[in-house]
Amino acid sequence: MHTHPSLDESSLDKIGIWEDAGEIVAVAHYESELGEAFFQFHPGYTHLKPVLLEYAERNFYGETETGQRYVRAYINDFDGEFESLARSRGYTLDERYPRPISQFIIPQPFPPIQLPDGFRVKSAADDNNLVKIHRVLWRGFNHPGEPPQDGMDGIKGRRKMQSGPNFRKDLTIVVEAPNGDFVSFCGMWFESRNKIAYVEPVATDPDFRRMGLGRAAVWEGIRRCGELGATVAFVGSDQDFYGAIGFTKRFDTNCWTKYL
User: Fold this and answer.
1) 93: burial class by Cβ within 10 Å (0-12, 13-18, 19+)?
2) Does residue 6 contact residue 32 with C-beta atoms inside 8 Å?
3) How far apart are CA 112 and CA 216, in angstroms?
4) Residue among 206, 160, 82, 131 nearest 214 (CA)
5) Confidence of residue 165 (pLDDT cuts 50, 70, 90)
6) d(C-alpha 204, C-alpha 69), whole Å
7) Are 213 and 114 within 8 A, CB to CB?
């Protein structure tokens, strides 16, 4: 969140943190801009849910073009208590903005990773060429033409995304084509305390899809996290691509909207 180019940094002071005896027990925050609300809480502090939701309404509201205030609260679909609370406070389920979560149980040993002849897997620790990384992500997310180079939409934004304390070049995977271009990309995040890997983002150049390159990039990132001790990988998607390479959907983080 804090290193994403689209983050509204003007409202970071609105993020709410609750502590007990010097330990953080809950957080309410937005992810990129006001109008959205996310909640993290220790299992022993679920009684704070009403407080977190009220805090979001006071601090995270966005405004429509006509000036109508709203909050989109994201709640896991297995948390019936929280969903009931939101409903009682006037929220309605908004099916336009689901956030699915899928998981991949990391096998040991990891299966072989194969690529077409002439292609090879590398990491940013081997070659952190931001111009090539920027191009594969730009094209991989179906933007037309060649990518801009200036501003937060360009190389500056890619550099910012690599500035976070949890970013690791050795877990940032690319597939290099025979001509030297990066044509597939997988960002990977390792969280050592809970032994999990998180996949974000994944993109393949449209000219090189359906060749197994995206699968190779994702699997290589997961394999490396497995060597570090991760037992499971998660991704915020239920696209067919992830199902085809071994992910299974676990739950949705549903959007509940309230107009204030």
Assistant:
1) middle
2) yes
3) 10
4) 206
5) confident
6) 38
7) no
- Per the rule left: phi > 0, alpha: psi between -120 and 50, beta: everything else, 256 is beta
Q: The CATH number of the domain where 88 resides is what?
A: 3.40.630.30
DSSP for 203-245 reads EE-GGG-SSSHHHHHHHHHHHHHHHTT--EEEES---HHHHHT
- All residues at 6 or more sequence positions from 45 whose CB lies less than 8 Å from its CB, including other chains: 18, 20, 25, 26
236 lies in some domain:
no
Contacts of 84 (CB under 8 A, 6+ apart): none
Q: Are residues 147 and 212 in the same domain?
A: yes
Calculate what percentage of the chain has a pLDDT beyond 90: 96
pLDDT of residue 135: 97
**What is the pLDDT of the chain when averaged over all its residues?**
97
Reduce the DSSP state of residue 140 to 3 states and report it. helix
What domain range includes position 223?
107-230
Same domain, yes or no, for 220 and 138?
A: yes
Tally of structural domains, the chain: 2
Report if pTM > 0.90.
yes
**Structure token digits, residue 31:** 């992810």
**Do residue 93 and residue 119 come from a single domain?**
no
